[in-house]
Write a structure and sequence with these properties.
The complex is a heterodimer of chains A (372) and B (440). Helices cover 43% and strands 18% of the residues of chain A. In chain A, strands 1-3-2-4-5-6-13-12 form an eight-stranded mixed β-sheet, sandwiched between helices. Chain A has a three-stranded parallel β-sheet with strand order 8-7-9, with helices on both faces. In chain A, strands 10-11-14 form a three-stranded mixed β-sheet, with helices on both faces. Chain A has twelve helices and 14 strands. With 372 residues, chain A is an alpha/beta fold. The longest helix of chain A has 23 residues, at 2-24. Chain A has helices spanning 2-24, 66-82, 96-108, 125-133, 157-171, 187-206, 222-235, 248-260, 276-284, 295-310, 347-352, 358-362, and strands at 26-28, 55-60, 86-91, 113-116, 138-141, 151-155, 175-180, 209-215, 242-245, 270-272, 289-292, 322-325, 331-337, 340-342. In chain A, helix 6 (187-206) links the parallel strand 7 and strand 8 (209-215). Chain A starts with a helix and ends in a 10-residue tail after the last helix. Chain B is mainly α. Chain B has helices at 23-30, 34-53, 61-86, 94-117, 124-149, 154-173, 197-226, 233-255, 261-271, 288-306, 308-318, 320-325, 330-356, 367-377, 389-408, 413-439. In chain B, helix 3 packs parallel to helix 10 (288-306), helix 5 packs antiparallel against helix 6 (154-173) and helix 15 runs antiparallel to helix 16 (413-439). The chains are: A alpha/beta (372), B mainly alpha (440). Chains A and B meet through helix 1, helix 2, strand 8, helix 7 and helix 8 of A and helix 3, helix 5, helix 6, helix 9 and helix 13 of B.
């Protein structure tokens, strides 16, 4: 009995350790060129660090999304290794507080440049300011950090919204629209909505388009998006001609709701992220567009910018920067990459890029050229 | 359904008390749970309120049909949560377990089984479902063991589970969305195909009504046999008639929701029927998720009130020491309660992924809070020992009605959360107030 009890205690400890380790652990991985770096090498935070000494710290907000681990991290790593820098990282497990600690840890581990995927662009500010004061440049990766001292690298999210709306607006220039927005706490939800507005705003004002349903969706939850879509369809008595959904996950919920009314394929639906299931829906015709942001481009741009800045380039001298006026009123030095709208006509792009296989795209599809 | 049983008073005469003089005495003589009546009244107020505020959309067959499907997963899990909470435990991990089990079932049917059986094999759904139920039972059993035998508080164990199972769910597919589901499996999620149809629904209504009448007759006979107080004859008749009317009314509503025109047209084309001028009206009837939820409610009520396991759970919740000294194997009972919870989570997970026709690693996020809230709004006491399964189902219906109704009114998400949160606190506050008054 005693033994069994202690075994259970061990099991629980393991459970707790797994939880902590998986969610908030800090891992250090040395790149090829950087294996010689030891704790004794004082980080040279002044300009002109040699290639061998560069350490780039990446603070992830969480891995709970497909793309970070699969696409972004490998491409950042590749770019850093090509430039001879060492990659160290930490995962904040969706906790803004944890991320503050993570950033401090990365600096004390000797990071020369920080790449931060912010859990909360405001909460992380103190850590960013502390880093900048210590002369460590900061790259705001994919999510905005409201500090003009940081370099903001992202896909043009307003542009994503614009692309989504353009495809849908071309198909449905007038009629009833439903807009399914993402989490109300995520600034991207509002950027995307702004992009929609730039395309359909005039038509809405002129009365050609009526928005018969619009709602935020907690956690970008597909099941919740499905419920909302069912309710909007009920309220509008199925008189809906187009749906602007801000991402692919929610689009899956929207399409399921449309399917239940026999409207899937008749009502255009937008999305973004290039989810495999979504690209299959594009091929099937139940979703009209998935705006694809090639995450590898983003990782590559961030890695290269990090190396340039570690070698002493001022933030304004990094190649490809533009000024971007943030919602917080800051003029951010930014690198804005162009996304691509994937429709039935250019599905070959994602296949050629190795993002998805022909079999995955074409599951259940017969009538499309690419599926032969 | 009430668990707080009236102690038998053998001194009273066989044919029940004299005619009641006051209204409260009248209600008491019917032995109906007044809490339950209050909840139903609240539900009616919510429904009618939304009906007018949404411009007459809420109380339509279509919306009620949708509502019934939307509330099913939470209702299924709430029936198990009652037992957990009654035994003075809590399960914070049900949302993450739903994610884990849903994702596992999705991976098995979309990626593993097709390589052996091919797509669309008729046995796929049953294999997947069985797999999910076993997995749910195992996960529940594991947590139950740690709670009961290692003595770690359930709050901590399931808080760990909340993190662990979500992480495992993510690892299973590295965060990918897994889709589509098997075509037979999809029926579990309702939808246009996943329903009983008109005839089947009426048959179910008939069976349930017969069950109600038979139960009332049996109850009366048993009371007479053991010399318990009899409820007045008119009360029993009113209960029987009311129950049957409610059942047939609900089925009538379900049968008044017709297959959407587009789908009806497709069916007409497939079968080569000319499209009639007036349109083709194919009633959908009770959807499978609702059937499953109602089944779960009946089975769990039976277990809670009539089986030894259920009565043990209530004794443990009422007084753990006394239960233990009374010879109840309290630890094993707690393990079983967690196992039952795990199985019900698996059922809810099947319904959820079938309905969405996809599984994502975020599946079920925060649903533990909705499940606990449903149980608590339904009268389950967090200090243990008190609670009813049917109350929890009603609680789930109240919560989903609020949410769906607010979407109809185009209330945006943050405000919805505010309203749901306030309702939860008020519901429990009212409950505490009345309980205190009634025990005084």
């Amino acid at each position: 009995m005693k033994i069994r009890k202690s075994l259970l205690v061990v099991a629980i400890l393991a459970l707790v350790a797994a939880a902590c380790g998986g969610e908030a652990g800090t891992t250090t991985t040395a790149g090829d060129a950087g294996t010689t770096t030891t704790a004794g090498d004082a980080p040279d935070t002044t300009a002109g660090a040699g290639a061998e000494d560069i350490i780039v710290g990446v603070s992830w907000n969480n891995y709970n999304e497909e793309r970070w681990a699969r696409w972004d991290e490998p491409s950042i790593r590749e770019a850093l290794e090509a430039g001879g820098a060492t990659y160290i990282s930490s995962d904040a497990g969706s906790s803004a507080e944890q991320q503050l600690t993570d950033v401090e840890n990365l600096i004390s581990q000797g990071a020369d440049v920080l790449i931060i995927l912010a859990q909360d662009g405001t909460a992380v500010l103190p850590a960013v300011q502390a880093a900048l004061e210590q002369g460590v440049p900061v790259i705001a990766y994919d999510r905005l950090i409201e500090d003009p001292g940081a370099l903001y690298i992202t896909f043009d999210n307003i542009g994503v919204g614009r692309l989504q709306a353009e495809v849908i607006y071309d198909m449905v220039p007038s009629g009833n629209y439903v807009i399914i927005k993402g989490d109300s706490g995520d600034a991207n939800a509002d950027f995307l909505r702004e992009g929609f507005e730039q395309v359909i705003g005039d038509a809405v004002a002129a009365g050609d388009i009526e928005i018969v349903g619009e709602s935020y969706t907690d956690n970008w939850d597909p099941a919740l998006a499905q419920t909302q879509m069912e309710q909007f369809l009920t309220q509008a008595n199925n008189d809906v001609q187009a749906v602007l959904s801000e991402n692919d996950g929610m689009a899956s919920g929207v399409v399921s709701a449309l399917e239940a009314q026999g409207l899937a394929g008749e009502v255009p639906v937008s999305g973004q992220d290039g989810d495999l299931a979504a690209l299959n829906r594009v091929a099937l015709g139940t979703q009209s567009v998935s705006v694809w942001k090639d995450a590898r481009e983003l990782g590559k741009a961030a890695g290269e910018a990090a190396i340039a800045m570690a070698r002493g380039a001022a933030i304004g001298d990094v190649p490809g920067v533009v000024q971007f006026d943030s919602p917080g009123g800051n003029s951010m030095t930014s690198i804005l990459l162009e996304p691509i709208a994937i429709t039935q006509d250019n599905l070959n792009l994602v296949v050629d890029a190795g993002w998805i296989t022909i079999e995955q795209v074409c599951q259940g599809v017969t009538s499309l050229d690419i599926c032969g | 359904m009430s668990v707080t049983e009236v102690p038998p008073s053998e001194t009273e005469q066989l044919e029940g008390p004299p005619p009641p003089r006051s209204f409260t005495a009248l209600i008491r003589s019917t032995e109906i749970d007044t809490r339950m009546l209050g909840m139903m009244a609240l539900l009616v107020v919510i429904w009618v309120g939304f009906h007018f505020m949404s411009g007459g959309t809420f109380l339509t067959p279509r919306n009620l049909w949708n509502l019934s499907v939307q509330f099913s997963p939470v209702a299924i899990m709430a029936t198990g949560m009652v037992l957990i909470i009654v035994s003075r435990n809590i399960d914070l991990s049900v949302g993450s377990m739903l994610g884990l089990i849903g994702m596992s079932m999705a991976v098995v049917q979309a990626e593993i089984l097709p390589t052996y059986l091919g797509f669309g094999h008729p046995a796929t759904w049953i294999i997947v479902l069985a797999f999910g139920l076993v997995l749910g039972a195992l996960v529940g059993m594991f947590q139950g063991f740690v709670v009961a035998y290692a003595g770690v508080p359930a709050f901590i164990v399931t808080l760990g589970g909340l993190l662990v199972w979500r992480g495992v769910a993510w690892s299973l597919a590295s965060g990918r969305t897994v889709a589509p589901m098997d075509s037979t499996f999809q029926l579990l999620g309702g939808g246009s195909r996943g329903s009983l149809g008109a005839l089947g629904s009426w048959i179910v209504a008939g069976l349930v009504s017969a069950g109600i009448v038979a139960y009332l007759a049996y109850d009366r006979r048993q009371r007479r046999r053991y010399g318990f107080t009899l409820r007045p004859r008119w009360v029993v008749i009113a209960l029987g008639v009311g129950g049957c009317l409610a059942v047939f009314g609900a089925v009538w509503v379900m049968n008044s929701y017709y297959l959407p025109e587009n789908l009806a047209r497709q069916i007409a084309e497939q079968r080569g029927i000319a499209w009639p001028e007036a349109g083709l009206q194919i009633p959908l009837g009770i959807s499978y998720p609702v059937l499953i939820a109602m089944g779960a409610m009946l089975v769990m009520s039976f277990i809670a009130n009539r089986r030894r396991f259920g009565r043990y759970v209530f004794s443990i919740g009422g007084n753990p020491e006394a239960a233990e000294l009374g010879g109840i194997n309290t630890r094993w009972t707690v393990v079983k309660a967690f196992m039952v919870m795990g199985i019900l989570v698996a059922v809810a997970a099947a319904v959820t992924i079938a309905r969405l026709n996809a599984a994502t690693s975020g599946l079920g996020t925060l649903s533990e809070l909705y499940v606990i809230a449903a149980a608590v709004i339904g009268g389950t006491s967090l200090s243990g020992g008190l609670g009813t399964v049917s109350g929890a189902v009603l609680g789930a219906l109240v919560m989903q009605s609020l949410q769906s109704g607010m979407v109809l009114m185009r209330v945006d998400a943050p405000l919805q959360d505010i309203v749901v949160g306030i309702v939860l606190v008020i519901a429990v506050a009212v409950d505490v107030y009345y309980r205190r008054r009634s025990t005084r």
